[in-house]
Amino acid sequence: MGLIVQKYGGSSVADADGIKRVAARIAAAKRAGQQVVVVVSAMGDTTDNLIDLANQVTPIPTGRELDMLLTAGERISMALLAMAIGNLGFEARSFTGSQAGIITDSSHGRARVIDVTPGRITEALNDGAIAIVAGFQGISQDTKDVTTLGRGGSDTTAVALAAALEADVCEIYTDVDGVFSADPRVVPTARKLKSVTYEEMLELAASGAKVLHLRCVEYARRFDLPIHVRSSFSNLEGTWVVKDRPEGADMEQAIISGIAHDKSEAKITIVGVPDRTGVAARIFQSIADADINIDMIVQNVSAADTGLTDISFTLPKTEGSNATTILKKIQGEIGYLSIQYDDQIGKLSLVGAGMRSHPGVTATFFAAMADAGVNIEMISTSEIRISIVCRQADLDSAVRAAHSAFDLDSDQIEAVVYGGTGR
Asked: Who has greater pLDDT, 196 or 419?
């Protein structure tokens, strides 16, 4: 008897019919002789609606109480799903994150998993029951308060539980049929990948691909846990995220495995920064102290006559106001001239292990951007990734141009977004 962990996103359990459909799929796995643990997200837009409700009550809800509120969404889903499974003749027991043993740090809204102690889950499985776990949440090791894991938290819950239970596979069910060579809502001819490596998936996730969250892929790589990304709306085989691709894979022999894009970032340019030792360190330490993640960084060569340079970097739009406030506080200390803030940018990334052994990828990419009339503002690279920043208005056409330039287009439309969200 194998052990599988299944995770269902909000679009899969958006309504009563969706919950019944998911329950039938879980029951089929149990009927086939599998031990099944299920991690479930909140129904549809429940989390967003709860956030809106909190903001109507107070403009600045405290982290502790906001987490207490938001975790209610997953508790609703888990209880309803357990009821639906029970109606099909199987025993199901629902557990909150804390009951399931998801131990986190005390950072409300973005807690990190420290440990998983799934004693009650194991007990339920030994009794022949299906365990239903509320995703996105845990309990603080220090304060014993309820915490939420932030964006993609249910994916992280599922992979962490699968690793702790030594499951055979973690199945991530979304409303698309797998991981595609580009966002199917932007590129209808995007191809479904049969498999992708942890390394490539990490780059895709970090570059804006929404199908899997970065932290869950990191967790899977650490424990060498296979992830199967598939749709809860079809029975098609999805995409396997694994350590190494199986030999003989066809599509995956391409130089570029996938193209990701991101419209959620902004760019800050610090104009007229004195080009002396320690200045950049002071700037970025102040940003780091506020726990703000920075993505791409570009520093110009200083002008010979002034000794001043410009430093540009990208960060999440949600942190833009906070970052500019911090930088203005240290303007007198640093001595820079001004700050420019731009939230109308888009990031496009090519990802593929084939870059290591194929010269000319950069030239082909930039030629495609030029032919599409896309002006490149920033460039960043890793061993298997090339990222650019351009105008947000040009991003969709840039994605399609790059996809065609590297012969990633499928002969037929394979990509279907059943629920409309890509989650």
From this structure: 196
Please return the burial class of 223, using the count of CB atoms within 10 Å of its CB with bins 0-12, 13-18 and 19+. Answer: middle
Read off the pLDDT band of 246 (50, 70, 90). low
Distance (Å, whole) CA 390 – CA 67 = 36
- CATH for the stretch 3-248: 3.40.1160.10
CATH 3.30.2130.10 domain locations along the chain: 255-407
The CATH 3.40.1160.10 portion of the chain extends over 3-248
What phi and psi values does residue 299 have, to the nearest 5 degrees?
Answer: -120, 130
99 exposure class (CB count in 10 Å sphere: 0-12, 13-18, 19+): middle
> For 5-41, what is each residue's pLDDT tens digit?
999 999 899 999 999 999 999 999 999 999 999 999 9
Judged against a pLDDT cut of 50, whether residue 95 lies above it is answered with yes
| Cα 75 from Cα 136, distance rounded (Å) | 10
Helix segments in 187-290, DSSP class H: 198-206, 214-223, 279-289
Predicted local distance difference test score (pLDDT) of residue 175:
80
CATH class, domain 255-407, is alpha beta
- Kindly give, in sequence order, each residue whose CB lies less than 8 Å from that of residue 366, ignoring residues fewer than 6 positions away: 376
- Nearest to residue 13, comparing CAs of 94, 79, 69? 79
Mean pLDDT to the nearest integer, 163-177:
93
> Using an 8 Å Cβ cutoff, are 202 and 210 in contact?
no
Q: Are 422 and 211 in contact (CB under 8 A)?
A: yes
Bigger pLDDT: 254 vs 182: 182
DSSP calls for 335-390: ---EEEEE--EEEEEEE-GGGGG-TTHHHHHHHHHHHTTPPP-EEEEETTEEEEEE
Three-state DSSP at 292 gives coil
**End-to-end alpha-carbon separation of the chain, Å?**
29
CA-based torsion, 51, 56, 59, 64: positive or negative: negative
What average pLDDT does this structure show over 280-286?
95
